[in-house]
Amino acid sequence: MIRKDQKVGVITADATPRGLGKKHLEAAGAGEVPVVVVGMETSEAFQTISQDKEILYPEQLRDDIVEIATKLVGDHPEIGAIVLECANLPPYAKFVHEAVNRPVFDFLTLTNMVYSAVVKREFSGLM
């Protein structure tokens, strides 16, 4: 889906050395895929989720992830697609896509892709 000269941008909960790293990518079969990984560590709104706080700030989280994605692509224009690695991020995929104009993938994308491959619907167009 991306050109050979492009990279995959990964937005994860934690891009520090204790978070998502090369060993995780290798275990997923993506050890040779050129990636740029950034984390949500600087987002206070994200920290309320990762620390299981009772109050959430979805609008602020939306703004934070859009800012992080925009900076990611601005710093690395060779990024051809983005993966939202954390399960808390798919609700913001549309906003990331609109901000950076790149395909955005997450576990819902994968689930929908698998589902559409194994549950076929009858074609309803004109033949």
What secondary-structure arrangement, pairings included, does this model have?
Elements lengths: L6 E6 L9 H6 L7 E5 L4 H7 L7 H18 L3 E6 L8 H8 L3 E2 L1 H12 L9
Parallel strand pairs: 1-2, 1-3, 3-4
Helix pairs in contact: 3-4
Structural summary, described in words:
With 127 residues, this protein is an alpha/beta fold. It has a single domain (7-17, 33-112), classed as Rossmann fold (3-Layer(aba) Sandwich), CATH 3.40.50.1860. Helix content is 40%, strand content 15%. The protein has five helices and four strands; from the N terminus they run E-H-E-H-H-E-H-E-H. The protein has helices at residues 22-27, 44-50, 58-75, 93-100, 107-118; strands at 7-12, 35-39, 79-84, 104-105. Strands 2-1-3-4 form a four-stranded parallel sheet. The radius of gyration is 16 Å and the shape is globular. It starts with 6 loop residues before the first strand and ends in a 9-residue tail after the last helix. The mean pLDDT is 91.
